[in-house]
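anyone seen this seq b4? input:
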Amino acid sequence: MQPEAAGRIPVFRGPLVDINLRVADNSWSAVTEILLNYSKNGCDCAFVVKPSAYADVDLADLLDFHRESQRMVTRASDREGSLDLWVMNCDLTEESGLGSISGALLEPDRFPPSYFVEEYVRRITHARDFRQLITDALLSRCNLAPMGEQVRPGIWADDGVEIQKGARIVAPAYLGRRCTIAKTALVTRFSNIERDSHIDYGTVIENSSILPNTYIGVWLDVRHSVVHGNKLLNLERDVLVEVCDSRLLRCNGTVGREKDGRCASVASASDRSHEKSLLFPDSARFYTAELKELLWKGEFRNTLRLGLLPLLATAAAVEYRITGSDRGIW
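predicted toks r here
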């Protein structure tokens, strides 16, 4: 792993046994050193993988093929061409005539692909490929399976998920650990909400990926996108937007960021109260515009229903002042 990627190491569920993580400026030099150490410890061959694709490869079959063919290096491929997956002998050195590891592995004519992968392969060159992999996983087209429990057909929920009253989850969808889906929010159509994320009141998440520790504000419509913190990549327009208004998008539980650029974990009570006061004028303008539009269209029944909202909001505010909760109203 290169130094710039070290800060993006994900949080794992528990200790990873027999897995070592190494940070190096030159990845291929590190690979060469590790292979030689493997050889000294009695390991005859090893897998070398670059994270450029997801593949359901039968690794045991690939290893047997490598040994039976008595090759120095065996590279995998699929219908689209070479994959960044190799099996190579660990005792390769400069004296073996191989040259540099990177040159040997990356030069297509040096060791052409010899093992064909018939199983599922998805190359990851764009966020669009990542979204397709999520869709295929939710449809069981590959061996990548959602974590947690399948609480309903096509809906997976991991530990600590909170789905508040009135929220809707439409299959297929995945809800990661400790994420929250607030009242009247909707998660639908191949969406995945990753760990510690919060989808606030009335927001719709459709065919999108919400990456870990992300807050999505009230009454938003997120479609065909990948969101992380305050950055949103729309896949239909291929446009990346960084949202400065923390009421809309932010790292979960914070209005700002820590000095080192990472998301802070907790917002103070004064931040939350200030955020609510900022939301009120915008909400009032939005409510007035919606009321005028319904009247203009002649939808009198919906106009009467919308007219009840200020009364419910007032009652909720009073209950919140008295009990500290508005659950009874909504």
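The CA atoms of residues 167 and 184 lie 4 Å apart. Confidence is low (pLDDT under 50) at residues 254-279. kinda curious what u guys think
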